[in-house]
Amino acid sequence: MAAQTPEPVGFGTRLTDLARPLRLFSLTPPREATPQEDLSRIAEVTIERLRPLGLDALVLYDIEDESDRNPDVRPFPFVRTLDPGAFHADYLSGWGGSVIIYRSVGKYEPADLKTWLGEQDPQRVATVLVGASSSSAPVRTRLAEAQSLWQDTGSLLSLGSVAIPERHARHTNEHDRMLRKQEAGTSFFVTQVVYDLTWAKDLVSDYAYACRGRGVEPAHLVFTLSVCGSLKTLEFLQWLGVHVPRWLQNQLQHAPDPLSESYEQCAAAAAELATFCRRLDVPFGFNVESVSNRRVEIEASVRLAGAIRDLLES
Amino acid sequence: MAAQTPEPVGFGTRLTDLARPLRLFSLTPPREATPQEDLSRIAEVTIERLRPLGLDALVLYDIEDESDRNPDVRPFPFVRTLDPGAFHADYLSGWGGSVIIYRSVGKYEPADLKTWLGEQDPQRVATVLVGASSSSAPVRTRLAEAQSLWQDTGSLLSLGSVAIPERHARHTNEHDRMLRKQEAGTSFFVTQVVYDLTWAKDLVSDYAYACRGRGVEPAHLVFTLSVCGSLKTLEFLQWLGVHVPRWLQNQLQHAPDPLSESYEQCAAAAAELATFCRRLDVPFGFNVESVSNRRVEIEASVRLAGAIRDLLES
User: Fold this and answer.
1) What does the alpha-carbon distance between residue A114 and residue B172 come to, in Å, rounded to a whole number?
2) What pLDDT does A1 receive?
3) CA B46, B47, B53, B59 torsion: positive or negative?
4) Euclidean distance between the first and the last CA atom of chain B, given in angstroms as a whole number
5) B198 closest CB neighbour out of A172, A198, A250
6) Helix (H) or strand (E) holding A310
7) Is the dihedral of CA B220, B308, B290, B14 positive or negative?
8) Coil vs helix vs strand at B110
9) What is the pTM of this model?
10) ipTM of the predicted structure?
11) Taking the CB of residue A157, how many other CB atoms lie within 10 A of it?
């Protein structure tokens, strides 16, 4: 199928254009127990649904339980999902465009991670290396070690890292962490889901001025946005560590239709963050995901990604 | 001069129209050491400057040192100012419109406060009773006692109270405090200076839903906005307990012209809060003040009040 469409521009090339906002869409791979014949169909339907969005890359998450990070009961039960690299290799050949494969590095032996990094086609695959979700989690590979392994493989894949406005609100040093990650090779950042615009702007601002102060070119900062169609999803977002301001919690709790309410909030957030980043000359982008697998929420996510495309192209 | 203009509508009458946003402007009375001949001139200039704004009331602050509340050095030195009631009685007869006289109740003996409350003309004067700035401050009259004294004088003056989004962010019960103040007779609220819109919206939202839950009609919530023309003023706002988000601190610190930067932020805040309150059916208003007495900041405050008038009438 890739042969029918013009050869897509590699993600690394996209990153060199700082004036052009990135547009990503994230998927959690199907659950491990999914029958093989369903996997092909899921992949096909997904590709057809996402193709009109003209994305710069498809993001594939590497799901961890994360229950070690939060003592509260996980609102949605943890379900083991396919390895994102395997799902890509085995089922997403029809996608044709770039993919960004997350790696929760603590899950892997260093040798396995290095092998995987070395085997990927840098024209097609970028990676986001993610450290452990808590400092007490048992890990096979630490983030700094994973970054070294990436360097050992020639630093060929575009390397992304996570940036967390909530951590910045607590410790006010996330911009320093970002600069250290950039020194280690990171060329783009993806946030966790953003519902608190003030906190997101605080991070953008501190990062922008820190870059200026040190004479460093800021890297793309991609904000993850996710609709929230039910109170259960809201609870799950908060369980994941997303800070939802009180007024917005109230609004979603009292809305006759929380899905369209959250959709409007996400669209408004994209517009406000775009204006803010442009003003500060921070290259940016948006990543749309659905944290739940309810059909209406996935469909609203696709609509949101389309609205963001229109916003950025207008 | 009042005879030349139509008899103004009393502030109490304004409060009964929940659909109409209030517009206030605040003054700190001149310093005690001001020569008497200058006081008349200051009053005259002020009245001429404010008359075109069509305000619902002029607010006169009752300044306290507040150094007991904050161990940090006060960025602007504390200067004793005229009693707001005396300044009004002796110099502001030309104003003609309503005034809202603040009373920091801890400064007064109960008997003096009661006498003052009983002597005011409810057609011209409303009051905001303010409790001590810290729980450790020595007080002559506590807020609850002052509210009783107001009731003893027949509850004739329109009674206002302060509402503090920053306190809500810390303790998440400011809406409960507001409802208790309403039970004690409060018919409008004035915030301290607002620079954090999320925190202001959090308070509006919790207050709105608490009112609905208890079947109480919400009272006007008047947001105080103040321009900030220098880093010294920014420092003073923060000393006063105003939360300025990091991004906005950065923006003011790096702006070639912090005054016009803060002016834009205040105007945008007014628009956003008006939309938000209308959506939640909370009656609202704006109070513009200048926390510094620099001429350019006072002039920008008057311009801001004019812009807010235009916004609310459009």
Assistant:
1) 49
2) 43
3) positive
4) 29
5) A198
6) helix A295-313
7) negative
8) helix
9) 0.94
10) 0.92
11) 25
